[in-house]
């Protein structure tokens, strides 16, 4: 059964320690976290390295072994040594940045295939901001209106994920504009900043400081830390 941890923002901050420990408790792998700031790579090595250091400091403080995997480009995602290190880890963690960049690196790559194998084995896929968004459903092939996010890779095949959702609410029209690109029959989960959901792709538990907005066809509901909800499996 796959395990996903999605954060609306706030990677490598103290608030997320508890939910990460919960995710890692049952994870299968070598016990480590593979940190991939890939989504920030277009901002330069200084930004990439800063996110990597933040991750290392965070997990060192929590007593969890971790390593930064320097995957920045599509060719990097085809390097056998880097792919093997990700597949061996108990949790693969993609931090924030540009979801289009992250999807470009991951799509149809040996790295993405290794992540799928790791999930099937019992490892955790963790994604914050861009790392959560790329797990969304893929676009429909017929190109109909919305057709989900351009960068959705289908790790969770029936849901689209939004992040920084409470911040978007403070910008007039932003939430409407973002979700207007989704088909009317799609499921959408909006995750507030410093808020996370942990689940298997269908059953989820909310953690953190904000709330989660779940929209299905003709329905909308809100959940806070400790609440559970479900999204469709088909």
Present the secondary structure layout.
Blueprint: E1 3-7, H1 17-25, E2 33-36, H2 45-62, E3 66-68, H3 80-88, E4 91-94, H4 99-106, H5 110-121, E5 124-128, H6 130-133, E6 159-162, H7 165-169, H8 174-179, E7 187-191, E8 195-199, E9 203-208, E10 211-216, E11 219-224, E12 228-230
Parallel strand pairs: 1-5, 2-3, 2-4, 4-5, 6-7
Antiparallel strand pairs: 1-8, 7-10, 8-9, 9-12, 10-11
Helix pairs in contact: 3-5
Descriptive notes:
The structure is a single chain. By secondary structure, the chain is α/β, with parallel strands linked by helices. Helix content is 30%, strand content 24%. It has helices at 17-25, 45-62, 80-88, 99-106, 110-121, 130-133, 165-169, 174-179, and strands at 3-7, 33-36, 66-68, 91-94, 124-128, 159-162, 187-191, 195-199, 203-208, 211-216, 219-224, 228-230. The strands form 2 sheets. It has an 8-stranded mixed β-sheet with strand order 3-2-4-5-1-8-9-12, sandwiched between helices. A 4-stranded mixed β-sheet has the order 6-7-10-11, with no helix packed on it. α3 packs parallel to α5 (110-121). The protein is globular and about 45 Å long. The two termini are 16 Å apart. The mean pLDDT is 93.
């Amino acid at each position: 059964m796959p395990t996903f941890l999605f954060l609306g923002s706030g990677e490598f901050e103290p608030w997320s320690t508890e939910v990460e420990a919960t995710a890692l408790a049952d994870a299968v792998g070598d016990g480590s976290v593979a940190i991939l700031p890939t989504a920030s790579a277009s901002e330069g090595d200084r930004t990439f390295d800063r996110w990597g250091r933040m991750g290392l400091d965070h997990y060192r403080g929590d007593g969890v072994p971790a390593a930064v995997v320097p995957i920045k480009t599509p060719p990097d995602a085809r390097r056998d040594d880097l792919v093997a290190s990700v597949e061996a880890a108990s949790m693969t963690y993609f931090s924030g940045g540009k979801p289009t960049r992250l999807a470009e690196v991951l799509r149809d790559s040996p790295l993405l295939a290794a992540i799928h194998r790791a999930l099937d084995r019992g490892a955790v896929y963790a994604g914050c901001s861009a790392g959560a968004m790329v797990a969304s459903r893929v676009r429909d092939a017929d190109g109909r209106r919305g057709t989900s996010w351009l960068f959705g890779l289908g790790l969770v095949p029936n849901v689209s994920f939004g992040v920084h959702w409470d911040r978007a609410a403070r910008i007039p029209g932003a939430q409407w504009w973002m979700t207007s690109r989704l088909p009317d029959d799609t499921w959408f989960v909006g995750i507030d900043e410093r808020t996370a959901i942990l689940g298997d792709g269908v059953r989820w538990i909310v953690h953190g400081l904000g709330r989660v907005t779940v929209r299905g066809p003709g329905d909308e509901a809100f959940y806070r830390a400790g609440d559970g909800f479900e999204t469709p499996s088909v």
